[in-house]
Design goal:
The protein is an alpha/beta fold. Helices cover 44% and strands 16% of the residues.
Length: 216
């Protein structure tokens, strides 16, 4: 097989987390007396970490101090409601199990807070990941390649034999910055026309097609 390690994004790639993320945004915005955002708006805000999500969600001109307060409310609510509506996308557990059974390393590199990443990986994919990394103080957020490179070092995987799988522009740029192959999935939070003209060398519309490519 061509790949010895596959690194996955989490939100919009493995898990549909939109309802829980939007509920946390609703709570935090309402606490501040701000207008709520639609699910479609929240979808577009996701992908670059929770601080950016909140900065995009609050009204234009909101001060940094107020943004920090809204972010604190968001984090507190989401930590307590991280797995209410969240579910894997179709055929994702089977895809991960097939990779695991084939002896291919499987990892997660996410801009979601690390505690939430660990909790969701255990809840939905217990035993199927070799390592998972979320947002941490010592790892710059994607599209910085640091998280992907750290996973490759920890799992002893060569760049030429590593594949990065994600749905967003940050994922495509992370793979490019890390010097590794990338696969884009169309079922997540970013539409093809929202990817800022980035090159998409490999695109997949369902998990089965992705599995056939990796395992073929």
């Amino acid at each position: 097989m061509k790949y010895e390690l596959v690194i996955f994004d989490l939100d919009g790639t493995l898990l549909n987390t939109l309802e829980d993320l939007a509920a946390a945004a609703d709570y935090a915005l309402s606490r501040a007396g701000f207008p709520l955002r639609s699910r479609e708006e929240v979808r577009r805000f996701i992908g670059n970490g929770v601080a950016r999500l909140i900065r995009r969600a609050v009204p234009e001109g909101t001060t940094d101090e107020v943004c920090r307060s809204v972010l604190e409310d968001y984090r507190a609510y989401y930590a307590a409601h991280v797995n209410v509506h969240t579910r894997p996308y179709p055929q994702i557990p089977e895809l991960l199990a097939d990779l695991h059974a084939a002896g291919i390393g499987v990892a997660v590199n996410s801009n979601k807070p690390d505690a939430a990443v660990q909790a969701l990986c255990v809840a939905h994919f217990d035993g199927l990941f070799d390592l998972a990394l979320g947002e941490r103080a010592d790892i710059p957020k994607k599209p910085a390649p640091d998280g992907a490179l750290k996973l490759m070092r920890a799992l002893n995987a060569a760049p030429g034999r590593t594949l990065y799988v994600g749905d967003g522009d940050a994922d495509l740029m992370t793979a490019q910055n890390a010097g590794i192959d990338c696969a884009w999935v169309s079922w997540g939070y970013r539409r093809r026309d929202e990817l800022a003209g980035l090159d998409i060398p490999r695109a997949f519309g369902n998990a089965r097609a992705l599995a056939d490519f990796i395992l073929g």
